[in-house]
Structure formats: C-alpha cells, structure tokens
Amino acid sequence: MAGRIVLVGGGHTHVHLVEAFGKAPLVGWRVLLVSPEPKTAYSGMVPGVIAGHYRREALEIDLERLCAAYGIDFRLARAVGIDRTGKRLHLEGGGEICYDLLSLDVGSASATNGIAGAVEHGLPVKPVGDLLDRLETHISSKGRDGPERITVVGGGPAGIEIVLALRQRLASASLALVSAGPLLEAHPPGVRRHIRHVLARRAVDVEESQAVAAIGQTEIELADGRRLESDLTLLATGAAAPAWLAQTGLRLANGFIAVQPTLQTMSDPDIFAAGDCATIVGSERPKAGVFAVRAGPPLAANLRAHAQGRPLRPWSPQETYLTLMATGGRHAVASRGAFFVAGHWVWRLKDWIDRSWLRRYTC
Ligand SMILES: Cc1cc2nc3c(=O)[nH]c(=O)nc-3n(C[C@H](O)[C@H](O)[C@H](O)COP(=O)(O)OP(=O)(O)OC[C@H]3O[C@@H](n4cnc5c(N)ncnc54)[C@H](O)[C@@H]3O)c2cc1C
Asked: According to the model, what pLDDT value does residue 204 have?
C-alpha cells in the first residue's frame, strides 16, 4: 500500500513525527503537515517569556522550515472537519485535502467553565501564541508599570507560573490568583505549602476554593457575591476540547477524541490522535505537554506499522512524572510523587530541559 499521511496540527507530538518520517521515510508514502500558523510556540517557556527571561522567538518552532528540512510537505491551513467516508479533511475557507491515514495533534483551548463574560472579557492562556501577543499589547498600552490589577483564574501549575511571571515583570501591579478548588489540588502537601509561601512573599492575593462567577471589563464577581477590581483577567482554567471535533463523528470522551492504547481512534482505524486533543480510554492522564511529547515515538511507530500492514503496539503513558514549575526570579520547583525540591538550580535544570527539547526542532 502507498498513499498520503496527513498530520493535522504542529503540536508537541507531531514535531517528533516530522523528524521521524524525515529521518526514515516510508517508501511510497508522502507526509503532509497542516497548520494554521507557520510557527508553533512551546508552552513550557511561556512563563519565562512573560517574566522577561527569554525573547519571544526563543520558544518558537518554525514548522515550515522544519518540514522543509526533513522533506515533509507543509500546508498553511486550519482543519474544520473530516469526511471520513470520502477520506477528506475539510479546511477553513472551503478547501479540502485527501488522506489515506490521518493523525490529529491539535491541542486544546482554555476552558471557560460556564463563567459569564469569560469569552468577551477573559484572556485565555491557550493558544499560548495569542496569549503572548495580547498580553504584550495590553501591557504596553498601560505604560511601563502595566495594568493596575491583573487576576489569573486557575490554581493549577499554569496559573501559578503565569501569576509569578507577571510579578517578575510588573513589580508594582496588584496581582490576584483565584482558584475554584484548593491550589495545586493534585500535588503533594509540601509543594502546596511551598507555593503558598512563595505567593504570599511575592504579594499575590490568593482566593482559594472560590469560583469566579462572572468576568467584566474592569472587575470580576466571585461565587460568594464579592466583586474584585480587575483590568485584565487571564483564564488558566484547564483544557477544553476544540469544538470542531464534535462534528467529526469520531467517538469522544468529555469532548476529546477517544483513542485506544495504540493511539488509533475508537471509531476509525485510519485516524490517530495524540496530545491534549486525545484521551486514551483506560489510561486517562492530565492534559500536559509531557504526555504529548512522549506520545511522539509510539505514534510514529504505529502510523508506520499501520501503513505497512503490520500489527500495532499499545502504549501506556507513565503514571507519575516530573513536574517543573517556574516560580519567578529564575527559581523553580520540581516534584515527582511526594518528593519535591526548589531553588535556582531547579530553574537551570528546567531551562536546560526546555532548551534541549526545542533545539531538536529548530533548524
Ligand atoms: C502557560 C502554560 C504553561 C504550560 N507548561 C507546561 C509544562 O511546563 N509542562 C507540561 O507538561 N505542560 C505544560 N502546559 C500544558 C501544555 O501546554 C499542553 O499540554 C501541550 O501544549 C499539549 O501539546 P499538544 O501537542 O497536544 O498541543 P499544542 O502544543 O497546543 O499544539 C497544537 C497545535 O495544533 C494547531 N492547531 C490547532 N487547531 C488546529 C486546526 N483546527 N487545524 C490544524 N492545526 C490546528 C495549533 O496551531 C498548534 O500548533 C502548559 C500550558 C500553559 C498554557
């Protein structure tokens, strides 16, 4: 068999596939990457860009260039639907692309969690490229000290990293972090204590176990009825599935594409999915870049095996993993299970890991 493999989205998983199919081409097959942007941003270094530790370009992977370097076709387009019977990918604006095998790595969006005014007045942290553009515009429009009061909604790692990066950048702004549940709910007590201490030391007001009910232009309303001034409200509220996936007819799990341990969708053997947009039924994991990165090698191997008519191998993502959280001022916290360490050297380790990963895809 020969044909065309279409990779939709240039996320953390698919950049590996570009490299893998470039280094060891599948004889008789063409590989095409479809992305709405020529460049993709690496989320792990976003807090570092906000804090001013990195230039914006430092976290970008030039997908067009990466594809050219590995002999992979590239098409600048946004997928909006799939005709599974005709094996066609529908594109925004009316075009379509024929495929034999399809793989989806289109990421996730920031969840609005039913918060009134979130779409109109909130600034989602995903996609991260848009976040950085809009944040920069907002900060420069407010002058050197930035907006007077910024609220970050979400008490997970992304919300905490962003609020502490903002503190690093905007020394005199009033910063608040609002979390519907306890801060870092899935983390060990030691890490949570440490982070609470850092937030207090860096003058971030924390509202824990307090949901945001509504976001307005200059204030937010909490579930208990209190109103807080907020010139800018960021949404770090967890991952939501891209809406267009619901129209594909593929089986979904909470809106995300339900896949088998082979990363093959439950509904169509010729369609695979990985990263935030997919959920492995029976091996559900948090929506984190670490899993998207690790899905690269098994996805490449199984797409290759399927194209060649060989049996596929199941993949089970690890249950515990190293979390690295930047806490501002070139400090970071590392945790795995109940164990955690913090300090400048942890930030240097995170910096080294992030840069090493990016270097692989920067030609
Ligand atoms: C501020 C922040 C910090 C984070 N830090 C960490 C961290 O330190 N460690 C960690 O493990 N996780 C972290 N995360 C989570 C991490 O960002 C995600 O889990 C990760 O990006 C998922 O990778 P992905 O490949 O699924 O998607 P993404 O990296 O989001 O890539 C998706 C790609 O698909 C493209 N795309 C989207 N829609 C379409 C479409 N319709 N058609 C074609 N292409 C499309 C996009 O342009 C994008 O290039 C962080 C998240 C945020 C917001």
From this structure: 97
Backbone phi and psi for residue 250, each to the nearest 5 degrees, phi listed first: -75, 150
AA letter at 52: G
φ/ψ (deg, to 5) at 135 = -65, -45
Helix, strand, coil percent values for the chain (each to nearest 5):
35, 30, 40
Q: How far apart are the first and last CA of the chain?
A: 32
Please confirm whether the linkage preceding 127 is cis (ω < 30° from 0): yes
- Let me know: does 320 contact 337? Beta carbons within 8 Å: yes
Q: What is the pLDDT of residue 166?
A: 96
Angle of helix 157-169 versus helix 189-201 axis, rounded to 10: 20
Residue 131 Cα to ligand 1 middle (Å): 12
d(CA 150, CA 311): 52
Mutating to test ligand 1, I would choose from 106, 132, 347 the residue with most ligand atoms within 8 A of its C-beta, which is 106
Asked if residues 149 and 174 have their Cβ atoms less than 8 Å apart, the reply is yes
**φ, ψ (nearest 5 deg) of residue 76:** -80, 100
Cα separation, 265 vs 262, whole angstroms: 9
Residues lower than pLDDT 70 in the chain: 1, 143-147
Contact of 104 with 9, CB cutoff 8 Å? yes
Residue 153, classified by CB atoms within 10 Å of its CB into exposed (0-12), middle (13-18) or buried (19+), is: buried
Q: Write down all domains in the chain, each with its CATH number in brackets.
A: 3-36+77-108+241-307 (3.50.50.60), 111-236 (3.50.50.60)
Q: How many CA atoms lie within 13 A of 291 on its CB side?
A: 23
Task: Report how far residue 246's alpha carbon sits from residue 278's, in angstroms, rounded to the nearest whole number.
Answer: 13
Structure tokens at 61: 């992977």
Ligand 1, CB within 6 Å, residue ranges: 8-13, 34-37, 40, 43-44, 46, 78-79, 105-107, 125-126, 128, 158, 161-162, 242, 275-277, 287-290, 292, 324
Whether the Cβ atoms of residue 230 and residue 219 lie closer than 8 Å to each other: yes
